[in-house]
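User: As part of a screening pipeline, I want to sanity-check one entry by hand. Below is the sequence and the SMILES for pyridoxal-5'-phosphate. Please return the complex as structure tokens so I can compare it with the automated output.
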Amino acid sequence: MFVELDSALDLPLFRQLYEGIRDAVLGGRLAAGARLPPSRGLAAELGVSRNTVTLAYDQLVAEGYLEGRPRSGMQVAATLPSRAGPKPLRSSGARVHRPPLLSARGRVIASAPMPGSAWAGKPPRPFRPGVPALDLFPMRLWSRLVHRRLKRPPPLEYGDAAGYAPLRAAIAEYVSAARGARCTADQVIVVSGSQQGVDLAARVLLDSGDEVWMEDPGYPGARAALLAAGAALVPVPVDGEGMRVTEGERTAPRARMAYVSPSHQFPLGATMSASRRLELLRWAAEAGAWILEDDYDSEFRYSTRPLASLQGMDQDGRVVYIGTFSKTLAPALRLGYLIAPAEIAHAFRAVRAACDRHSPVLDQAVLADFLTEGHFARHVRRMRHLYAQRQEALVGAIRRSLGDRLEVQPTGAGMHLVGWLGEGLDDAAISATLWEAGVEAPPLSRYALVRPARGGLLLGWAGYTPEAIESSVRRLAGALN
Ligand SMILES: Cc1ncc(COP(=O)(O)O)c(C=O)c1O
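Assistant: Here is the complex for your manual check:
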């Protein structure tokens, strides 16, 4: 017999027999029409119960490998199910065409990995950027709101793809008051973080091959989502006033979209000046292009009031605004929002429905309560105060331990800053050394499409206590030496 059974294996005997016969059929050792013994005879021959053989035969019949009845004898089916394997050569000698494993689109997406995939799921170490003070997430309050909601749950039917109505209303009110946005709740689409916001905007507004201005250096998460949509990214340099709009107009005047983070440019930290904002809005109106405004951390402004959003200045309905609760609350919530131009909000809702219907309604209901009952405003106020102190701790510690070997300027906004390295130093190599020493400080060059003239390290501070910041700066100084 061509099958050897081993009762010491983890695999049940009937499964071993099934696989043995199937492999013999697929390997050609049992040809179409070949006869197999009746179940009683085979059971005796193999020293197993008849039930074991019957189970294996039944499975092989169900999958189309065998025909007949277990008791009276089985035969290999005349027409066999095929299993992927090397195809025979054509008589001409040419190889039969085999399509690639991935689609062209799949290959593009797989080769532009999301930022942070190396550290996803691992506890953050100083100075991984973009991490809020997760130990101060208001867990008890949140769990009280969850329990209250479980007693009075929102409808458990499929929900509105644009989001849970009370949450959309609360977000519209918040972005109007805090960000000077001009919108109604009908324009709000609740998304699972900014990432989905960028993805949706690309699906709704771009065709494959469309040019998109991308801040350079810029946010790799947005880059990955835009590349996934087939966009042709056009790097546009940034300076102290944000994206250099005239450079974009010079290199790609007919681009379909511009991605910007005007409140706090990621990663360099500039606030886009009023004149650049007007230039960008004028270009978009004239070119019929879209502006994707990523307003990811504007709540954290320390010196001046947060600037109003670009969306609020837009007279022509060209801005798609994206906000997130990843920085103000926690990234794992996966909740954010997109404010669509009124005219095309219906398309965003339809595309969201086609992607994954909508965000979990219970989470949305809890967040709605958190916002409308004033907890959100209180939490952000507390964190803003705390983050200002933590930045002071970071800048002070670096200046004391590193002097001008790592040049830092306090920033008026956000949760990270750039530490500038000396001329000619390779920031990627230094970042790798620091990682080994237990310090996370991604290199500026990782965020750039065109290699920056001077290397730097991104240093997040918001999620770390002053003590952790102090000791990590000492480690950083040791490694840098
Ligand atoms: C520029 C920028 N946008 C958006 C986000 C937030 O992404 P999400 O809302 O998908 O968590 C981040 C987080 O690091 C970011 O740096």
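Points to compare against the pipeline: The longest helix spans residues 375-402. The chain is about 40% helix and 10% strand.
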